[in-house]
Amino acid sequence: MKRTVLALFVVVGVFGISGAAVAAFSVIAGVADPTAGVATAGSWQGAQEPMTLRILAYNIHHGAGNDEVLNLERIAELIRSLDPDLVALQEVDNRTERTGGVAQAARLGELTGMGSVFGKFMDYQGGEYGMALLSRLAYENPTNHVLPEGPEPRSSMAIRVQLQNGEELIFAGVHFYRTAEERMAQAHRLLDVLGTEEVPVILAGDFNSTPDSAVMAFIDESFEIPDKGDDHFTFRSDRPDREIDFIVYRPADRFTVVELRVIDEPVASDHRPVLLVLEIR
Predict the structure, then answer these.
(1) Which domain holds residue 182?
(2) What is residue 41's predicted lDDT score, i.e. its pLDDT?
(3) N or C, which end of the chain is more exposed by having fewer CB within 10 Å?
(4) Residue 253 maps to a domain
(5) Residue 47 neighbours by CB under 8 Å, 6+ apart
(6) Nearest alpha carbon to residue 9 among 247, 244, 251
(7) In a domain, 1, yes or no
(8) What is the value of pTM for the model shown?
(9) More confident residue, 23 or 189
(10) pLDDT of residue 47 exceeding 60
(11) Could you report the per-residue pLDDT of 168-186, keeping only the tens digit for each?
């Protein structure tokens, strides 16, 4: 499949409500109130066309920076500064000992004024370890899709996002692991699960696979993988030398990439965040 010139991520619909109310609707492990995900208006431009969407992918390393400081507020400040509509987060703790018993997805939702859902991979240190999605737009049906296991269990948290024009799309987080064979099995399972969706689909996160890998070649058969340009390395953040974080989407004719940036943040996490601004056609 032909690659576009930039990189993509996810979507969501918008309603007016306070950040505190959003936090009350936060979801843990895919169990949601049907009204969850309602949040304050972000980058939507009312009834104007075309619609644009700001998408962020970030492996946050459970809030522990390269300076060995655990600082979730620093992660939230970076997210707020980029003003995303949708965020896919990897390496997220839920009430574990190492992160002080904090429900990190819910806390980041509170700090950013966005709806939050947590997708559990496994039990860990008295709590849980997994991924999270944040949304400034309305969503429903949070589902934690179980993927083939390796040394650590893996899943993909997905939500159905309501766009302002009444249309929908699926936004799903990715954190494949560990060997090439295990990642390929996880990719096959995820694409099988999402293959029946008739609405557009956006995958975002840490694929733990480089652009020339068999895993990304397989993804490329059914998704567009936008090109980040010259500054494309996403790991490690303090000395980046490889590209393993992506935003991919389908179908190609529903989206135009407006902007794509790998954010130069060398301290807050061991990964660099990826920001995509997307026009919906």
Answers:
(1) 13-280
(2) 35
(3) C
(4) yes
(5) none
(6) 247
(7) no
(8) 0.84
(9) 189
(10) no
(11) 999 999 999 999 999 999 9
